[in-house]
Amino acid sequence: MATTLSINGETREVDTDPRKPLLWVLREDLDMPGTKFGCGMALCGACTVHVDGKAVRSCTTPISTVAGKQVTTIEHVATLPVGRKVSEAWTELDVPQCGYCQAGQIMSATALLSAKPSPSDEEIDQAMSGNICRCATYLRIRAAIKKAAASEGASA
Ligand code: FES
Ligand code: FES
């Protein structure tokens, strides 16, 4: 069955089971491997994308539930003003170690700063608590979020 999706500003039609998780539609049907598979159970955050600007776990999101909504992935996030500031801060502070979790981390951080341009430490910890990093880059992640928040135009 065909489902029409809006991915990164483009309308895409996917002919597959409407119960198929968005993560696998992105990776298998749309050839967008930037969004990662970690746990498959909404526990690690590796698969985080935005749906209508909010961070969601694509591994447990059937594509039927995002029909007609705006999906943004790591491939596109740096074209958004806040996503660009986050991506720049990530690069400047050399946040990633192995890198596997980082697409999800950037998506969650961008959703946070889009909703709260100047988050407190507690708000950062709360927003990022579902994104697990086995390399323990948490201190650099928090520093990069603060740097992005302090960047001129971050909330534009
Ligand atoms: S793969 Fe989706 S939360 Fe872990
Ligand atoms: S950088 Fe390796 S899992 Fe996060």
UniProtKB/TrEMBL annotation:
GO MF entry, a single one: isoquinoline 1-oxidoreductase activity
Domain 2Fe-2S ferredoxin-type: residue ranges: 1-77
Record's keyword terms, sorted: 2Fe-2S, Iron, Iron-sulfur, Metal-binding, Oxidoreductase
Listed CDD domains: fer2
Superkingdom of origin: Bacteria
InterPro entries for the chain: 2Fe-2S-bd, 2Fe-2S-bd_dom_sf, 2Fe-2S_ferredoxin-like_sf, 2Fe-2S_ferredoxin-type, 2Fe2S_fd_BS, Beta-grasp_dom_sf, Diverse_Oxidoreductases
Designated name of the protein: Isoquinoline 1-oxidoreductase alpha subunit
Gene source species: Sphingobium lignivorans
Top-level taxonomy: Bacteria, Pseudomonadati, Pseudomonadota, Alphaproteobacteria, Sphingomonadales
